[in-house]
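Feature request, filed as a ticket because there's no other form

It would be nice if the structure record came with a short human-readable summary line next to the tokens. Right now we just get the raw output. Example of a typical job, pasted below so the devs can see what we mean:
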Amino acid sequence: MAIAIIFLVLLLIGAPIGVALGLAGVIGMYETGGISFAALGSSKIFHGLNIFPFLAMPFFILAGEIMNHTGITARLMLLAQALVGHFRGGLAHSNMVASVFFSGITGAATADAAAFGRTLVPEMVKQGYSRPYACAVTAAGSIIGPTIPPSGLMVVYGSLMGVSIGGLFATGILPGILICLVCMAIIAAFARRKNLPKSEERASLKQILVHFRGSIFALLMPLIILGGIVTGIVTPTEAASIAVAYALFVGLVIYRNLSLGMLVHLLIRTAQITAVIYLIIGAASIFGWWLSFNQIPQAIATFISALSDNPNVILLLIIGFLLLVGMIMDINAMLIILAPLLIPMTQQMGMDPLHAGIIFILALNISLMTPPIGACLFVLSSVTGEKLEKISVELTPFLIGQLALLLIFAFSPSITLFIPRLLGY
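Raw output as currently delivered:
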């Protein structure tokens, strides 16, 4: 209990999540076995990071940074607007479609929320949308990025739990697309009531083809990554390095707007982002070891099992727990700590590892946009200056729709695993 209080106090005073996890873990180890145990902290960090597939993460991040800084953003938005801009609420629909396109570039919900919060939200407000609604649409679409491959969360989960990362990538395709379609349906359902604006004229086939040609190299990246992994030609780590080479080719040869100075800046930024993620993973490894040593995971599992012996109820409890903790902690850290704790319970229930993995990832992603303290809400509030409570009210229909989808995928393994089984996983 004392360690939990220390951890919460560190969070409340504004300590970074990696620092809070690491300090609480080391103090817990010292309390358990003295200085000799606390000295094991560095080795736990090393073992937590000494996982070969983790090498894929900085490569995916760098590829996304390069693609994002070579004019891809504007091209993808123009294509999305040409495809769906003529509908009522066209820019809101474009926001969702662009989130699907961007999933192959960023793969991070908060990154998408920040990028669209600076670009799309002001444009939506300019065209007549209320700022809270524009923020809500952006928050709802932001979780598509880390659901459709490539996804950093899937790399972390697959590496830790020994599950096929390619299989996880394949499992995320259908949920990501359906999240987009459900959100677009919600936009359409409320479009007339909210009097959402629409484009004066529909884009011609020629205009669509022009925008598609301008975006084709960005759209090909996720196909190259997933295709190489699924066919067994490359491993996820090799696919990530190929993605960097492809992004460099697009920036240097195709668009010719990637300078040496910009590349150095992007390498530094990639190192900074990767360092933060690896700090969290390493610190979570210490904290996770302390939890395991004190048999806290077993106690939590016993508590959940004692509440019910019905597998469906247990699955609902797990989902609710993930949604709750994902609102208040970094989801990478939560995945590292909670997956070894909760996945054995899903295995006892007979769940396929890919099925359990995508449910974990979906629940943690949705928690990022869940009021009152979802991370994407805070990002959008800080970027746009809009109040959290106003965004939360407009977000409610989207949240209900995404939670309904989560439950459908949780209790319909045949739907969830359709694509990975089709691809041989």
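Something like this underneath would help us a lot:
The mean pLDDT is 82.
Residues 2-422 form one domain.
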